[in-house]
Amino acid sequence: MMGVLILCVFLCGCMTPLPDKSGTVKIISSPPGAEVYLDNEYHGTTPGTISEVSTGNHMVEIRETGYHTWSQNISVMAGNTTSVSITLVPVLTSVITTPQITTAIPAAKKDVPQIHIDGYWTWPAIRYKTNPEPVLVHVEGSNVGYADAREVTTSANMYFEGRQICWTKVYLGTIKAGGHVTIDTMMLCQLPSDENTQNVKIAFENVVINQ
């Protein structure tokens, strides 16, 4: 009986707790109250703390109406707190809408909007050589259909050598039949070296139209 008791005490003394395989992410933004997404999952608003986050790399995204969406990869270490403190950049949007031209609609055509989207990316007036780096995205949307598009959104996707390196959602708003809208917006992008930026292409995909 004494031998069993000693063995039990010995085993209990040698046991150590399993290492913690999660960490914590603390997020602060200016202005506060912005929506927080971790790996595309909603986690409340700023300021806030996300507990029990698995170790490794995660994507943090901060969204607020009237401001450019901020996103970045972070690394979470076991037992540690990863702090994210950012200042959101206000959206400076210029919208130019051409007058609607009323024409006779042939009976064979359907009353549906037809949206064409084009544009380009360039450097902003003041270039910040950070990583990721802010870039200016110029978007033009035209409705060549015969019905108004009440709400139009698209995804501006940038590619380098066929690999997507960044993206942002662009809200074009209402485009009337025969109308045209121009939007300038900013997004953060992990760009290659300057001598390779001419190989960075932009595509406007995933167009969503609500009537």
Q: What do these coordinates show?
A:
- The longest helix has 13 residues, at 2-14.
- The chain is built from one helix and 13 strands, in the order H-E-E-E-E-E-E-E-E-E-E-E-E-E.
- The strands form four sheets. Strands 3-2-5-6 form a four-stranded antiparallel β-sheet, with no helix packed on it. A three-stranded mixed β-sheet has the order 4-1-7, with no helix packed on it. A three-stranded antiparallel β-sheet has the order 8-9-12, with no helix packed on it.
- Helix content is 6%, strand content 53%.
- The chain has one helix at residues 2-14; strands at 22-30, 35-38, 41-45, 48-54, 56-63, 70-76, 81-87, 115-122, 133-143, 149-160, 163-175, 180-189, 200-210.
- It is mainly β and 211 residues long.
Q: What is the CATH topology assignment of the largest domain?
A: Immunoglobulin-like
What portion of residues belong to β-strands? over 45%
- Helical fraction: under 10%
Order of helices and strands: HEEEEEEEEEEEEE
| Name given to the CATH homologous superfamily of the largest domain | Immunoglobulins
Number of strands: 13
Characterize the overall form: globular
Distance between the termini: 82 Å
Strand arrangement, major sheet = 3-2-5-6
What structural class do you assign from the helix and strand content? mainly beta
Task: State the low-pLDDT regions, or none.
Answer: 1-14
For the record, what CATH class of the largest domain applies? Answer: Mainly Beta
